[in-house]
Amino acid sequence: MNAELITIGDEILIGQVVDTNSAYLATELNKLGISVIQITSVADKRESIIKAFDDAALRAELIISTGGLGPTSDDITKPALADYFGSKLVTVPAVIEQIESLLASRGVVVNERNKKQAELPDNCEILRNTAGTAQGMWFKKEGRVFISLPGVPYEMKAIFREEIEPRLRQRFTLPTIRHTTVLTHGVPESEMATVINDWENSLPGNIKLAYLPSPGLLRLRLTGKTTGDAEALTIAMDAEVVKLKSIIGKHIFGYNDDKLEVIIGKLLKENNLSLSLAESCTGGMISLLITSVPGSSAYYKGGIVAYSNDVKTTDLSVSPYTILMNGAVSQAVVEQMAEGIRNRYQSEFAIAVSGIAGPTGGTPEKPVGTTWIAVASKKRIISRVHNFGEERGRNMQKAAIAALFMLREEIMDCL
Q1: Domain boundaries of the chain, sorted by first residue
Q2: pLDDT tens per residue, range 43-83
């Protein structure tokens, strides 16, 4: 079954509100084996809404819209739905009672606008909203199912979970969809495509591969689909992952929802190791990643954002002469930063980062994006230089990720 999602609202088209509803619905529908083939956003205009429905019906068997069901004058979805499905709006007493009960529990007195929420097309199947006053609606037309949901995310999600998902499972024979995501580092997308080309071309017809790059990382997502034996699909996908691992195993650091900071935290905690950080160009971003993991206090001792040279010299024991001779963004300085923070906090491992994040500050010798990263342990100090590009935010992200990968490699080498 194919589905199309339609978001209704001027606030989305002008960028005032980000459409998170479509992301949620696409994820949940995919779990049910329903493929979302298009997502459309339209204005709060009757003609735009009806045209979107007509166009979607040419492509999909299931059409779900969100938005435009509120009690104010700019919420015109219900009248447009009534026209489109040849119905009239009628007041539903049971819905009035539900609205009164819900608002009373919140200490709110029902007004006429609230009661207007109980006006619904007389040929729709009402999808009860336990989280708000705007009810969902289920229509059938020419072999298609049309569903209209409120735009408020927590209300939309409640209706989907409680009303829509059970109906879809009961009323339709749905295929099984499986996803397996392989998380990689160190190989750019274009190079990876070349390395695994033969493997990708030999995938079974019902298993597809998608490349999902992000700063410093590349996710390889396998998607399998079957209307038959779900267990056989899982076995087939697992076998393909094993083949892939034999080709690029050294670049794989996790699977599915694994996070690098969680993997590193587990390595540190299980081996009773500690970490400290000295950050310059990343401004605390590495610390944020490390401390986002519950229980990170067991292995993270602390860090210093040494943005100025004075802090580097006074708090991290970096030699002023080293900075004078090499510049703050240099191998010598970043190695002294790493050793300085490790000694200060008496940690087994330390990371230091110093770079030119941009957009200004670069030179011909050290262009914007030049970043030195060092990892110190009791055994040694390793350091590497990178050039991440010219965009400040991406430079900071890439530096943080690269630093964590260097730490992971060093921890595993020391174990």
Answers
A1: 2-171, 176-255, 260-414
A2: 999 999 999 999 999 999 999 999 989 877 777 899 999 99
> Which is it for strands 89-91 and 119-121: parallel, antiparallel or unpaired?
antiparallel
Superfamily of domain covering 260-414: CinA-like (3.90.950.20)
Q: Answer whether residue 394 shows pLDDT above 90.
A: yes
CA distance readout (Å), 74 to 50, 67, 79:
16, 11, 11
Q: How far apart are the first and last CA of the chain?
A: 50
Distance CA 48, CA 66 (A): 14
Topology of domain 2-171 in CATH is Molybdenum Cofactor Biosythetic Enzyme; Chain A (3.40.980)
**For strand 381-387 and strand 2-8, is the pairing parallel, antiparallel, or unpaired?**
unpaired
**Which residues, 6+ apart, have CB-to-CB distance to 96 below 8 Å?**
115, 118
DSSP code for 106: T
- Taken as a whole, the chain contains a residue count of 415
Same fold, 2-171 and 260-414: no
Distance from CA of residue 119 to its chain's centroid? 37
CATH class label, 176-255: alpha beta
Q: Mean pLDDT of all residues in the chain?
A: 95
Ordered alpha helix ranges (H), 85-215:
93-105, 112-116, 153-159, 165-171, 189-195, 197-201
